[in-house]
Fold this protein.
Amino acid sequence: MKLFSVRGGIHPSYRKQATTAKKIEPLPVVPFYFLPLRQHSGASAEAVVNIGDHVGKGQLLAAPVGRISAPVHAPTSGIVRAIQNMTAPHPSGLPGMTIVLESDGKDSWAELPEAYSDPFSVDPKLIRERVAWAGVVGLGGAAFPAAVKLEQSSQKPIKMVVLNGAECEPYLTGDDRVMQEYADEVISGGRLIAYAVGAPKVVIGIERNKPEAIAIMKKAAEAYDNVEIADLPAQYPVGSARHLVQALTGLEISARTRIADVGVLVQNVGTARAVWRSAHYGEPLISRIVTVSGGGMNDPKTLDAPIGTPVKALIEYCGGMNEKAEQIVTGGPLMGVGLPNIDVPVIKGTAGILALTSEEMDHRPAEPCLRCGRCVDVCPCGLSPVEMSSLIRRDKLDEAEQLQVMDCFSCGSCSYVCPSHLPLVQYFNYAKGEIWNRRDEERKQNKIKALAAAKEARLAEVLRQRQLAAERAKAAKAAANKEEKAV
Amino acid sequence: MSGSIAISGPFTHADNSVSRTMQMVMLALLPATAFDLWLFGWPAIFLFGLTILFCLAVEAGCLMLAKRPVLPALKDGSAILSGWLIAMSLPPWAPWWIALLGAVFAIALAKQVFGGLGQNLFNPAMVARVALLISFPLQMTQFAAPHPIFTAHAPDILTGLKITLGCEGNLDSLSAASALGHIKTELTRGIPVTHTVQSLPGLKEMILGIKPGSMGETSAIFILLGGLFLMWRRIISWHTPVSMLLTLFLLGTLFSAINPARYASGMIELLSGASMLGAFFIATDYVTSPVSKTGQIIFGFGVGFLTWIIRSFAGYPEGVAFAVLLMNATTPIIDHYSRPRVFGRTRQGQPVAFGDKK
């Protein structure tokens, strides 16, 4: 199909060969699982089980709260041992509410909802409800609740469902393997998503550096007229949803509007598979594909890991780490984040666990900026990192905001190419955080102001009413007096 | 390993660095430099070495005064490169104190006073060249005729040392005018360009660089090769050099077609003076030129245009250094107006009407 050019981007060394040809291996049951209540974007879920409860595999542990949220299910059967604050798999190392599940080793299923043998004969609304029940979130890394996206999209005329199989981050091969091993489930999932939102067409975008996946997917898509495979150029970050849509349709999505507004719905290929399994088998999302790789890993593999498994267990399954391992990263090396320790669990957004060597990271102290402009060339958002960073360093956040630092999605292309090894993404993340805080503060101030004004108005009104009443009473009294006199 | 997070992402990096960039540029300069050092012999070799040495010394001195770490800055190669470029723009038989003053102008005044590497507004090497040219017009225009090393009339190592130390008084017999200088002088005497070019070196000599000129500027072909190497290694892009050279060539061609007696041809404009060096190694200086590609095209055009204006109408026969400095001053404003359009926004920064076709 015809592709459109996308601005900027980089061609990092992909380093996928360690796992790209290895079959996905299921991770065996471990003694303890740790299930944070917030594994998705949006509000934290709320526990619906109590300490000591015995739960079956797939049983609901925590229910969604609010409009954007997702439930959490038991990855295996066992006993709830604790519901407490524990270190979250996030570089901050801050705690988050977590359910601790001790496995009973039986791995026996709880009672699951009805499996739709032919989901295409079910009301689309039921499919969307099933996806919400199953706690499916975007498995590409952002972990946005899939059901919320489906619900929003079903309100709009969707012309195209795009499945994102770009997997443009180095090292990661989970999507690649899923497409090679479960092509039918991925395509069925894509078709089902299209059915659930009333879209006529499914396009699956795959980077050209995955020829096996492209071949297998093309073959599997042959049976359907409305499913198309697009081989994308290997150009990071073509897997960013906005850029993917631009590459496939030529449409440039406006800043601050949703992709659904242009009639496109984007989901990761793994997400599509999870959607299919939730409808066809009635399975909740309790495991995900994780690439365990990096020069510091002894035996890199792609694993099917139950959500909640400690990262340590994945590393051990892959032969442990060698002495060269310098940094553990969750996600890809460009947008991923460092992990505080390896006791934290795999969550729904964990696409990769990388043990990287200092050689691979090539981390060096920052040198002065030469203004070479490479960062401007590669920025897929058309930003000017060189100028923004110098403003942020002088704490001129307002000016950085004028240069649209808030449109940066931290893809890391600028930091990747910077010859001075400046921590550009770091600057932008800092600025974004500060500006968000400021906006929050402003919102609060405005609210307080509005409330104060309302209170003042109310008091003034009460006073006015009182005066009116007093005047009326006075007038009535005067009238009465008059009458009396007249009498 | 410890579980702590000592560093931030991204956790992978392209294999480039400041010193590597500088090394690449020096590597690209090597053929032209080697050729001209051969062409102008021992005095040129001494002057070249001294200029770099002085630049390193001034850089170290400034950093010590500012109480900043000296070694890392010396190692990044920027001072060496500045010295190299100054040396290339000097008359090859200039005395040692020209090199010293050049180093002070470039490193102390043009670079360190502004805050060091990456902070300067003007190209240090060109500041040095212009300051020297204005202050010492005689020494800065006394170009030696080619005297390839080890040939009969070439100064031997001792004479070379004497020339650089300024104790060899009788240079007039050895010196010659550069092509642009010759054209200008003759024009002021009322002799048309069409006549003057006949006494200039032939096209082959011009391209190869067997002609009088600055130490590293005479060989158009070796500079061009170096420039192509930098483009191939993606240290520079084509935008600035092509835009500058094309402007220069087109203006020269156009005006010499209109009035051949008054204006030099496009070919002479390209192959003489510092056109090539300026286009590939000076105007492309990261620090002092615009960051965006659009900006670089504007910048290159400006340098080419001003160079031609100065060469054709001003008092100096060569204008690249002046043109570069003038355009350096416009870099911030070019940067401001040539920012790329942000994804999903208009040039004014408003969100585009959603779903615009590009």
